[in-house]
Design brief:
With 336 residues, the protein is an alpha+beta fold. The protein contains 13 helices and seven strands. 45% of the residues lie in helices and 16% in strands. Helix 6 packs across helix 8 (218-229), helix 10 (256-270) packs across helix 11 (276-290) and helix 10 packs across helix 13 (320-334). The radius of gyration is 22 Å and the shape is globular.
Amino acid sequence: MKTIEVVAAIIRRESRIFATQRGYGDWKDYWEFPGGKVEPGETAEQALVREIREELDAQISVDQFLTTIRWDYPQFHLTMHCYVCSLIGRALHLNEHEASSWLDYAHLRDVGWLPADEQLLPKIAAVLLGIDESLAEYIETQVVPAYAGFDKAHREDHARSVVQRALDMAAFYDVDRNMLYAAAACHDLGLSAGREIHHLESGRIIRSMEALSRWFSPEQIETIAEAAEDHRASSKSEPRSIYGRIVAEADRLIEPRQIIRRTVQFGLSHYPELDKESHWQRTLDHLHEKYYYGGYLKLWIPESPNAARLEELRQIISDEASLRDIFEQIWAEENK
């Protein structure tokens, strides 16, 4: 099989990386990291600078070698040397690709990657989140995929969003980012045992994960397990550690329409026998019980943006006619 050797640029801007969508060939419309072949007489770094200039009309600095990916496509074997790069200036122009996007950790898998490029994502997660690379490899390939079997409101995208928000809040506190990452990624694993005891089951699962001893002491694993146990919004007591408070806060994504959508999704998944009006009443009751003034939801981290968003949600709940309009839109979308 023919071997093709290329270089790829992981262009980073703060907490995001740059991805491009192919506009030609057998893999048209798939997403990739920009780059190309190394010409005779070029170093890998020189080839990257040239390729990005040709493909994007942009100048980069090559900051760090990340890894080499080897992948067998049907027609050839690919060897791809990958480098973390920075953009010099902010101008980019797509000369060869049909679309582009700046993706943070939580949205890395929102696009359809080329198979070889997809292998990079755990390492990119480590770079973007500032965590141990081997831990990221384990969590991203062995832990987060477990969420695929849960209800629609608690799939892999939910786990990654909680991780993103938790690590964002970590900037305000003296915490071990690896511990917080593990706690956030594992916080809902207990949903496999049902919603009522899922927080306790998550703690049990974490304590039983022998692989975690590669990165954490028994005391640290216990703190991670307690953080998962303490994240539940209906808990009547404050989380036992800063890790629990951050994970609990990160799990409360207060985006009004998304909260309403997740409430509808949960109802459709767990109570399929209910008719539309019963789902409406269940949605109304849940929003009042959890999010309205006097509801059981508690906010633990003052640096979280949730406070302002919670007040926005409460105003929507106060206006039942507007809330019903939103419910109707979401109901139609979820029942197509």
